[in-house]
Amino acid sequence: MTSLTLVRRISARPAIVFDLMTTAEGIACWWGPDDGPVLIAESDPRVGGRYRVRFRLLDGSEHESTGEFLEVRPPERVVMTWRWLGDEDEGGDSQVEIDLVAVDGGAATELTFTHARLASEATRASHEDGWSGALDKLERHVLRTGAAA
Amino acid sequence: MVNYSPSLDRTFAALTDPTRRAILARLETQESASVSDLAQPFAIKLPAVMKHLDVLDEAGLISRSKTGRTVTVRLRPEPMREAMDWLARYERFWSASLDRLTAQAEKREAALRGAQAKKDRDA
Question: Which of B21, B101, B107 best tests the A interface by mutation, with the highest count of A CBs <10 A?
Fold first, then answer.
């Protein structure tokens, strides 16, 4: 109950997906829940190395997450801790696990993305006003716009 | 700002146990049940079931009322919905991110194949 798993099939080889998920340049291309920009992307993808990503949402609010790489096995597996900046004071870190399996003779990738230990995130209070609050606003906006059309 | 986090944490903790999830699933299908009804399908003793019910009660997931010697248990769905909403926000966050990751990876793959095909032609 306390973890979230998403699966994607991607028409690209695992090495490309792995680089996008672990290098600073790659992360800057896709991270974040809406079309707002990634402002800072830093990554040192080796066991014990850290990453830091700061992004701005379309509502103008900025959010930052950081963590440590626990497992780095190119091009098939990455595990890292996850924490929102400003949440340092309580609870443990949650954990992001990414598994990449080559399919179609290596021409495509099955990505399994798990955000685990989310219960530890739930002990913290900042999300309602943070990115999740912004997502709610965005959704309400989309619903309103959709209803008007 | 709505600070629902401490109860959310308790909700998640309560939901991690399979026996407790089975009890909740049972209460979803029927409006109310007695404690002995709930205990019946499990190979555990009544006191153990009572302990699970205590955890669910503290997490706000059930309510108990006593009539004579019978304790009636009912589901209280609000905390569960709150926990599900919270998970759904994470799902939207990552789902949108992974959509862009997918598009970017496929663009790079196509570029790489294009370059390779050109090299093969030129060779």
Answer: B101
